[in-house]
Amino acid sequence: MSDYELSVIALNDLLSTSCGLYALPSEDINEVFPRIYVGNKSIAENITELCRLGITHILNAAEGKSFMHVNTNSDFYNGTDIVYYGIKANDTPYYNLSSHFEKTSDFIDKALSQKNGRVLVHCREGYSRSPTLVIAYLMVHHKMDVKTAVSLVREKREIGPNDGFLKQLCQLNAKLAVENKH
């Protein structure tokens, strides 16, 4: 078994219950780190609730029109002060989500650099794509290792990034360790 497989297995152990079961999110939105929220399609389309929560920035990790995506864009939030950024990511183990880690992490960091910045990172279910991007942000900008970042987000929300995304987080972890950035 390779180091990657051991790492993905270890991360899956953090995500599942002691019985090996996985839970779907019980809420539409959860604050997983101060001023960073992970949510689903329902909350992303509820402008009234977003404004009530003080969301200033939205990162859509599933932009698109298909069933597995969320059809919002900057025009959807016209008339609000919400800053929007979207990526057309697919929730499959073969999708290279890591190609977006730098830009999405910088978007989150810039949002939080504002005095009252609050960012919603969402995908269709708030279960795989969006938590993966938040975990990458925590690793890059808060110098957390992958296990710490996964555990922190999992404590606040039921998540289950697919094995391909977990592999990409393990690769980021190795890269940051070599660069001595965590």
UniProtKB/TrEMBL annotation:
SUPFAM superfamilies: (Phosphotyrosine protein) phosphatases II. It comes from Pelobates cultripes. GO terms for biological process: negative regulation of MAPK cascade. This is Dual specificity protein phosphatase. The keyword Acyltransferase does not apply. Its EC number is 3.1.3.16, 3.1.3.48. Residues 105-157 form the Tyrosine specific protein phosphatases domain. Residues 28-178 form the Tyrosine-protein phosphatase domain. The active site is at C123. One of its GO terms (cellular component) is cytoplasm. Keywords: Hydrolase, Protein phosphatase. Dual specificity phosphatase able to dephosphorylate phosphotyrosine, phosphoserine and phosphothreonine residues, with a preference for phosphotyrosine as a substrate. The keyword Hydrolase applies. Gene3D superfamilies: Protein tyrosine phosphatase superfamily (3.90.190.10). Belongs to the protein-tyrosine phosphatase family. Non-receptor class dual specificity subfamily. It holds the Pfam family DSPc. One of its GO terms (molecular function) is protein serine/threonine phosphatase activity. SMART domains: DSPc. It catalyses: O-phospho-L-tyrosyl-[protein] + H2O = L-tyrosyl-[protein] + phosphate; O-phospho-L-seryl-[protein] + H2O = L-seryl-[protein] + phosphate; O-phospho-L-threonyl-[protein] + H2O = L-threonyl-[protein] + phosphate.
